[in-house]
Structures are given as structure tokens and as C-alpha cells.
Design a protein that fits this description.
Elements: H1 2-22, H2 34-52, H3 62-76, H4 90-106, H5 121-126, H6 141-153, H7 155-158, H8 163-178
Helix pairs in contact: 1-4, 2-3, 3-4
């Protein structure tokens, strides 16, 4: 029964990860059938779970993390016939990996703290980033690292030890202000 529960949670995490990474990104073109979309999602899931995730049982450098994001971007190119622009944007790839790592970390399934967090409009607004960059279409590696580095400079301001904790705090504050399910 434990295996079934674990697989159920994994499927739910992936559904949340894909939905959040793809929802505003308009990644698919008119040639994308359900079978092809499923094949893309399956390939990326296996790559992340089997080739990338184990890196995060130890502290991961910015360089290694960026390399993993680029690996996902490159792998998406194997499905160029169904993707607008032939592959994921950098922003979609970072959101996918960072969000998946965030879920795994929160569940205690990876030993180290994720080196970065999912960069999207919400976190840029919470950090009061001037000139917000569209993560779905315009964000490149330099824009992304600018947000990460700004977050690092604000750790003391929020009394947080790392940017993963800072992002959870900022996400929770924003979520709670709109959360209709919040207990009174």
C-alpha cells in the first residue's frame, strides 16, 4: 500500500508541476496530440527523476543547477515538432525543475535545500523586482540569476537562512491574503 500512496503523490506532484510550468507558456503548437504530449511529459519526468534528482541529495552549485535547467531545455527539443519555438524557453525549464525540487524538499525527499526557487511573476512582484521579466517567453539565464541574486540580498530583511525558505515565506504570505479556504 505504501508504494501505491507514494506513486499517487508523485503523479499529483508531476501534474501540479506540469500545470504550473505550462499553463501560461503556450508551449504546444497545432501538431501536438495527446499521445505526443504524454511522451514529452514522460521523458522529462524520467530524466528528472532518474538523472537529475540525485544531484540534490548534496548541495548543488549555481553552475550545476543551471546546467540541469539547460539539460531539460535541450531534452524538450527532442519534441520540436509539437513545441512552439522547437523547445522550452529557459523560463519554462527553470520553473519545471525548481517547482519539482520545491515539492520534493517540502516532502523531505531530497536532503539538501534547493539552490534556487521557481522564478515567475508572483515571486518577482513579492521581491519588488523592477522591470519584471516574463518567465514564459523573455527570461534568459542572466535575467533569472538576477532575480536569484536579488533574493539572496534580501535574506536578512526577512530573517531567512536561504532563498528556498524566503520563497516559501513570500509565497505563503501572498497565498494567505487570497486564500478562501483559510481557517478562521
Amino acid at each position: 500500500m505504501i508504494m501505491e500512496k507514494t506513486e499517487f503523490i508523485q503523479k499529483e506532484i508531476w501534474m501540479l508541476t506540469y500545470n504550473a510550468s505550462f499553463q501560461r507558456a503556450n508551449i504546444y503548437n497545432g501538431n501536438a496530440g495527446e499521445k505526443e504530449k504524454k511522451n514529452l511529459r514522460t521523458k522529462l519526468r524520467l530524466e528528472i527523476e532518474n538523472e537529475i534528482l540525485s544531484d540534490y541529495n548534496n548541495e548543488v552549485s549555481d553552475e550545476k543547477h543551471l546546467e540541469n535547467i539547460k539539460k531539460i531545455k535541450r531534452s524538450s527539443g527532442d519534441f520540436s515538432e509539437i513545441l512552439n519555438n522547437g523547445s522550452f524557453s529557459f523560463g519554462v525549464a527553470q520553473k519545471m525543475l525548481n517547482l519539482y525540487l520545491k515539492y520534493q524538499w517540502c516532502l523531505g525527499r531530497i536532503k539538501s535545500i534547493p539552490p534556487h526557487f521557481p522564478v515567475d511573476r508572483q515571486i518577482q512582484e513579492a521581491l519588488k523586482i523592477p522591470n519584471i521579466i516574463s518567465w514564459t517567453t523573455e527570461m534568459n539565464e542572466n535575467d533569472y540569476m538576477n532575480v536569484i541574486n536579488i533574493a539572496r540580498t534580501r535574506l536578512k530583511e526577512y530573517d531567512k537562512k536561504n532563498i528556498a525558505e524566503l520563497e516559501l515565506y513570500l509565497f505563503e504570505r501572498k497565498s494567505n491574503s487570497k486564500n478562501i479556504f483559510q481557517l478562521n
